[in-house]
Amino acid sequence: MAAPSVPSVPSATAPTFRIDIPLLPESAAGNALQFIDLLRSANVLASLRAGAASPRFTWRVLDAAGRPLMALPGPLAVYSQADEGTQDAPSGGLAYALFLPSFHAADIPGIRNVASGHQRLSRQVGMALDQGQRVLTVGNGAWLAASSGRLQDRQASLPWFYMAGFERDFPGIHLVTDQDVTDDGPWLSCALPHGLSDMATALVRHAMGDELAQVCASVFRPDPERARAALQAHAQQHIPATRDSTLARAIAFMESHLDQPYSLARLAEAAAVSPRTLLRHFQLELSQSPLDHLHSLRCARAKVLLEVTLESVPSIAVACGYADPAAFRRIFVRYTGMSPAEYRKRHALRAPRRRWRVEVR
Fold it and tell me: Considering only the top CATH level, what class is 246-347?
């Protein structure tokens, strides 16, 4: 959707709000993953509006005993540790809230068995509430929160099929029948997972203020009227392409002229700014010079050519804008940590040429 962008690195003094997310063996883990995605989106929106000084959410995924779970591998790592671009450790920031997803149980007796089997977690909820934290529940996760004994006279939202059983177990808690999400003091509850975006927006409002909450609400909620207006405005060319920025124009020019000699003046002309302004944009937004970024783009092309072709290193150097193969090798080592030959040896997707020959006997 946009020009290349680099997430702003949060300031060491930027406020952070930690959400603890205990997962039981019975928990609906998808609730937790969806909620973390909403926290990540809130962080992005906060960063877009306030940069490095913006407040942020961090989170810890815990087991039933309150111990942090080990980091998940690969792209799932952000679900068990702090958001990318966040310098704080997963345990960093102000302990702000507990999020209790729903859990799998066949019926009301099954729900009661799960709740009674995790009394330690209910006590943790009570201690968190005593310390001024909030508790967020989805569906039958309300049983674990209510078992803490700290939520008498509060209101909560539950699915209709749980209401009778919950009312018998906790007559002092008032069930709301006309809304899917209830925000009552320290307790935010949603009946079903489709209410998680509204719950996340309410959390943003409490932690970061009304202005950012309004932004989150406009992004998180479907809005057919805005969708139609956006398409209509685009069709009438009232909304310019997001890539039409100084940095985007410069990078687009680089990408289409990788094999040509570098000229700062020519690049600035393509971006429609002065060379000095162009240098400032690259330093401010990418923390590097245009030439450094060009080298990284050229090395990315070189990697592909080394992987999928049998072209010689000097030929690949020319295809990537380097007339001198020795200079290409030096720059490739600087950006990848290995020589072109070593990279090809490790990553080539083509068999060596000698293996193409079939001997006729």
Answer: mainly alpha
- Using a cut of 0.70, tell me whether the model's pTM lies above it: no
Closest CA to 98 of 144, 62, 134: 134
Note the pLDDT tens digit of each residue in 211-253: 899 989 989 988 887 787 877 776 766 555 655 688 888 999 9
Q: How many angstroms separate the CA atoms of 50 and 70, rounded?
A: 32
CB 58 within 8 A of CB 19: yes
Separation between Cα atoms, residue 282 and residue 361, nearest integer Å: 62
Considering the four listed CATH numbers 3.40.50.40, 3.40.50.880, 3.40.50.150, 3.30.930.10, the one that applies to the domain covering 16-220 is 3.40.50.880
Tens-digit pLDDT profile for residues 263-291: 999 999 999 999 999 999 899 888 899 99
Residue 21 three-state SS: strand
